[in-house]
Amino acid sequence: MSVHSRCLVFASLLLSGTANALEVQTGDNGHVQNPVFSPDGKWLAFEINNLANTVELWIAKHSGGGATGARQLKIPGASSSFGGGGGFAAAPEWLPPSQMLFFEGANPGGNLRIYYAAPSGGAPNEFIPSNTLQGNLTSPTIAEDGSQFAFVSDSTGKGDIYLWNLSGGGAPSTVSPSSSSENFPAFNATGNKMAFSRKKDGTEDVFYWSQAGDGVLKGGAGDQTRPVWAGDDVVYFSSERGTGTWDIAIASSGGGNRRVLARDVKLPSRATPALTPDKSGVVWVSSDPAKADRVMVTGLDGAGTKEISTGLVAVAEPCVVASNGRVFMAFTALPAEGADWRRLQVVDVTGKF
């Protein structure tokens, strides 16, 4: 897409309006968090957290009329919904070509492992057996062409990022071994670069890896975490202004041209910064209580910020997808003041994005 076209797309963000969202029905008691659309927009995966000892993973069929038929994905040996407690299934990631869903999960007392499941039905299966790699395996991520798979393993004592070439065979291998804990791997569009975070000396910084080697993208005060690529740039959360205060920043993969895009951002439970489908803007929610009913969209080129009112309470964790010529946004919110649980909402935002 040309620069001119990208500017025209983002200009539509400056239109005003209220989004009339539809709630996704699950029948479970818990806070919904971390919604993730499939790349074609036909499915929506999300977590339900009972804030005690269980995190479930659910999936729903998405169409222009909302998301329906929600069902829980239970790993082998899992109990019924919120039954035994202590189970964990989260961090959904879609494999673009086949629409297979990957995620991390564990039964009470067990290690976190990576599972996969077809959205149309069937029980999840373990993706990497323990005789290939033991310990906890987390943070699955997949290149856009489906050829490479990355994840985090603690089999060496620290969290190291492993890369598995799915098209070339062989076994997973570390791409950037260190004595520090690493997390949140993310491929660029071509799959030849990866951004990730690394914790060292009590702080967290964003690094990148490429075939030519790796290096720091952004260090300094506070934490920088959860990178996502927008072309050759990396968008990430930063707490340089103080603990508990989060901004969204952008920098080139070489560390230059760094800019803060949004200040005082409400940090999602696990998600990276959400981008518009054409990657011309970042979608976020303010931590300011006076703006708790709306979603913000800010241009990566500094073109300004649009506020979309939802009519709901405590909005959080937006994600966006383009599907069949329309643009949809999912987010979590309280349906009303004093409600017990955050629910998942889906809205058609065509013409606003």
Q: What is the fold's blueprint, element by element?
A:
Blueprint lengths: L2 H9 L10 E2 L7 E7 L5 E7 L5 E9 L2 E8 L14 E8 L4 E7 L6 E5 L7 E2 L10 E6 L5 E6 L6 E6 L7 E2 L6 E7 L5 E8 L2 E8 L2 E6 L5 E7 L2 E6 L8 E6 L6 E4 L11 E2 L5 E4 L9 E6 L5 E5 L3 E11 L2 E9 L8 E6 L5
Antiparallel strand pairs: 1-28, 2-3, 3-4, 4-5, 6-7, 7-8, 8-9, 10-11, 11-12, 12-13, 14-15, 15-16, 16-17, 18-19, 19-20, 20-21, 22-23, 23-24, 24-25, 26-27, 27-28
Describe the structure.
The chain is mostly beta strands and 353 residues long. It has a single domain, classed as TolB, C-terminal domain (Neuraminidase, 6 Propeller). Helix content is 3%, strand content 48%. The chain has one helix and 28 strands. It has a four-stranded antiparallel sheet, with no helix packed on it. A four-stranded antiparallel sheet has the order 2-3-4-5, with no helix packed on it. Strands 6-7-8-9 form a four-stranded antiparallel sheet, with no helix packed on it. A hairpin with a 7-residue loop joins strand 12 and strand 13. The two termini are 16 Å apart. The N terminus is likely disordered.
Compute the separation of the termini in Å: 16 Å
Q: How would a crystallographer describe the biggest sheet?
A: 4 strands, antiparallel
Q: What is the domain tally?
A: 1
| Name given to the CATH homologous superfamily | TolB, C-terminal domain
Sequence stretches where pLDDT stays below 50 over 5 or more residues: 1-16
Total strands: the figure is 28
- The share of residues in helices is under 10%
β content, as a range?
Answer: over 45%
What is the CA-atom radius of gyration, in angstroms?
19 Å
Task: Please give the order of strands in the largest beta sheet.
Answer: 1-28-27-26
CATH topology: Neuraminidase
**Averaging pLDDT over every residue, what do you get?**
86
Shape: globular
What is the CATH architecture assignment?
6 Propeller
CATH class: Mainly Beta
Order of SSEs = HEEEEEEEEEEEEEEEEEEEEEEEEEEEE
The secondary-structure class comes to mainly beta
Number of distinct helices: 1
